[in-house]
């Protein structure tokens, strides 16, 4: 492998670029260039020099996206931590774990019993 370019670094949304890249022999700034173009499903259009993998252009092709904070110096999207699907999923699992632990502690109190399909805890006063 001579080079690679990640269109979605640290991809937490499963936006793997399955779109067909288009090879272009064109001119940029009066110089002939060998390019590859791809409109990825993450909302960005990428134009890359196919001889060395350097980004020539990265621009959004949608009016609004909230998962990205913009583009870094390499031409790759910058993830918005507030929209990180992996972090949100882990936080949800942690909350679920906390709720299950609390229910387990509650059911161990004297006078409490667990019953039903959803493990409902009932305590007598």
Plain-language structure description:
This protein folds into two domains: 22-83, no CATH class; 85-123, no CATH class. It contains one helix and eight strands. The protein has a four-stranded antiparallel beta sheet with strand order 1-2-3-4, with no helix packed on it. The protein has one helix at residues 85-107, and strands at residues 22-28, 31-39, 44-49, 55-60, 68-71, 77-79, 112-115, 120-123. By secondary structure, it is of the alpha+beta class.
Give the overall form.
rod-shaped
Structural class: alpha+beta
Order of helices and strands: EEEEEEHEE
Give helix % range: 10-25%
Which runs of at least 5 residues are low in confidence (pLDDT < 50)? none
**Average predicted confidence as pLDDT:** 80
Strand content bin: 25-35%
Largest sheet: 4 strands, antiparallel
Count helical runs. 1
Rg from alpha-carbon coordinates: 25 Å
N-end to C-end Cα span: 70 Å
Spatial strand order of the main sheet: 1-2-3-4
Number of strands: 8
Number of domains: 2
Concise summary:
This protein has 125 residues and is of the alpha+beta class.
Topology:
Layout (H helix, E strand, L loop, with lengths): L21 E7 L2 E9 L4 E6 L5 E6 L7 E4 L5 E3 L5 H23 L4 E4 L4 E4 L2
Antiparallel strand pairs: 1-2, 2-3, 3-4, 5-6, 7-8
